[in-house]
Design goal:
CATH topology of the largest domain in chain A: Beta Polymerase, domain 2
Strand content of chain B: 5-15%
Structural class of chain A: alpha/beta
Strand order of the largest sheet of chain A: 1-2-7-6-3
Number of helices of chain B: 6
Radius of gyration of chain B: 19 Å
Shape of chain A: flat
Helix content of chain B: 25-40%
Shape of chain B: globular
Number of domains of chain A: 3
Mean pLDDT of chain A: 87
Largest sheet of chain B: 3 strands, parallel
CATH class of the largest domain in chain B: Alpha Beta
Order of helices and strands of chain A: HEEHEEEEEEHEH
Order of helices and strands of chain B: HHHEHEHEHEE
CATH architecture of the largest domain in chain B: 3-Layer(aba) Sandwich
Largest interface: A-B, 20 and 16 residues
Number of strands of chain B: 5
Oligomer: heterodimer
Mean pLDDT of chain B: 89
Strand content of chain A: 25-35%
Largest sheet of chain A: 5 strands, mixed
Helix content of chain A: 10-25%
Low-confidence stretches of chain B: none
């Protein structure tokens, strides 16, 4: 069995310019994963499956992760030119100060594939692919042509996260109905306001139920709706 | 109405005294045929209830009909997803009167452990009238039998005329219930008007 670095080297030797990157996992499990670039992913996947030494013939699991936009606060050292008065004469001097800068790291959707080798009896090897953003550039190549077992799970990710798999033979919603507009597993999914009857509500549900009750009371007060 | 004690006394002499209503309801409650329809793990308990150990046939419900046209009882046994809910209502609409509904298990009565899920209906009683609710996850076969006996008692107590008569003897009663339409964000409507009055919660 090869380590993740060895697998990365093998991929780079077989598929030039594959753009594979190791995503380290700092937890004790140390289950590092390989991030594939979407452009060469199908080629890389085919190599992983067909290579005699790697022989990753079994795709056990495909799942999605939603990474929303996040605000990062960084302390940056900034050098500024300030005018100082030294002995009655104005002089330009440089001053270094620490400043907290905030920037928004754009979010993305990630698809994770867990591979095993039944032949060589090892695994899992974890592959990841990331979309450009979370909203409109969400195309990723489908790995269903390589591992047939990805078909339904990619459909599920399309349904729940909205990742569009190009090259998928039958990309339709699988759990929700046709015509449903949302992707329920996204972090910013807003569920329909059907909190009219929550007899044992607590925490988040209690807040939603109270908001619903307030809205209904407001409607009744103004005589609109209901 | 015949005096209950007199009836028993006459019975001892070999004379059966009854009313048409009693005879009619006795016949109805003794042959309630459920529909062969299961949704989730509760359906396994429902199957167990019909098998030899619990033997639902003792109560006249041994014939599970594979068609709603021949069934009297819809046992909603399991999680009703929002994708399945229109089909459940449609099946109910296709059943001829008299028809009854048992909502079996936590999911069917309220959504249960999946209540806050994006795809789970918060109780089938939002769309169709439910006669007996059984809690449990899943309910034991004894609980389903108890629900069935409760339903039989309910049938027995139904008068044939006047207030509280069964729907099929009431020309003004609602026969068909609107099938919810899968919308862009949720089922539309979220509940059928008149079927499910929103319970008041005191906080």
């Amino acid at each position: 069995m090869k380590t993740i670095e060895e697998i990365k080297a093998a991929i780079e030797a077989a598929v030039p310019g594959a753009g594979v990157e190791v995503v380290p996992n700092p937890s004790p499990s140390a289950q590092h994963s390989l991030r594939l670039s979407p452009e060469r992913a199908v080629e890389v996947a085919r190599f992983l499956r067909d290579d005699a030494e790697l022989a990753l013939d079994f795709l056990s699991n495909v799942t999605g992760v939603d990474w929303p936009d996040r605000e990062v606060a960084e302390k940056v050292k900034v050098t500024r030119t300030v005018t100082k008065i030294v002995e009655g004469v104005e002089q330009a001097a440089e001053e270094t100060a620490e400043e907290t800068q905030k920037r928004v790291e754009p979010g993305y959707l990630e698809v994770v594939y867990h591979l095993f080798s039944v032949e060589k009896k090892y695994g899992p090897v974890v592959l990841r692919m990331r979309t450009v953003n979370r909203t409109d550039k969400v195309e990723l190549p489908s790995l269903t042509p390589v591992w047939r077992s990805a078909e339904f799970q990619e459909r599920e990710i399309y349904d729940l996260f909205g990742v569009f798999f190009t090259g998928h033979p039958d990309l339709r919603r699988i759990l929700m109905w046709e015509g449903f507009q949302d992707h329920p597993m996204l972090r910013d999914y807003v569920e329909p306001d059907d909190f009219e009857y929550e007899p044992t509500a607590h925490d988040e549900v209690l807040a939603r139920a109270q908001a619903h009750e307030a809205a209904v009371a407001g409607r009744e007060g103004t005589g609109v709706g209901q | 109405m015949v005096d209950e004690a007199l009836k028993i006394e006459m019975g001892k002499q070999g004379i059966v005294v009854t009313s048409l209503q009693e005879l009619y309801n006795w016949g109805r409650r003794g042959s309630v045929w459920p529909m062969n329809f299961g949704l989730a793990c509760c359906a396994i308990e429902m199957i167990a209830t019909t098998m030899a150990r619990y033997d639902m046939a003792r109560f006249g419900a041994e014939v599970f009909r594979p068609s709603p046209r021949q069934a009297d009882l819809l046992i909603v046994s399991g999680t009703v997803t929002k994708k399945m809910a229109p089909q459940v209502v449609r099946l109910y609409n296709q059943m001829p009167e008299p028809r009854y509904v048992i909502a079996m298990g936590a999911c069917a009565i309220s959504g249960g452990p999946f209540k806050q899920g994006y795809n789970v209906l918060k109780g089938i009683d939002r769309y169709i009238p439910v006669d007996v609710h059984i809690p449990g996850c899943p309910p034991r076969p004894e609980a389903l039998l108890e629900a069935f006996i409760t339903l039989q008692k309910k049938i027995d107590a139904q008068p044939l005329t006047g207030e509280g008569r069964p729907r099929f003897l009431d020309a003004a009663a609602q026969g068909e219930f609107p099938v919810p339409v899968p919308g862009e964000h949720d089922l539309e409507p979220a509940s059928n008007k008149g079927v499910w009055p929103v319970p008041v919660v005191i906080r």
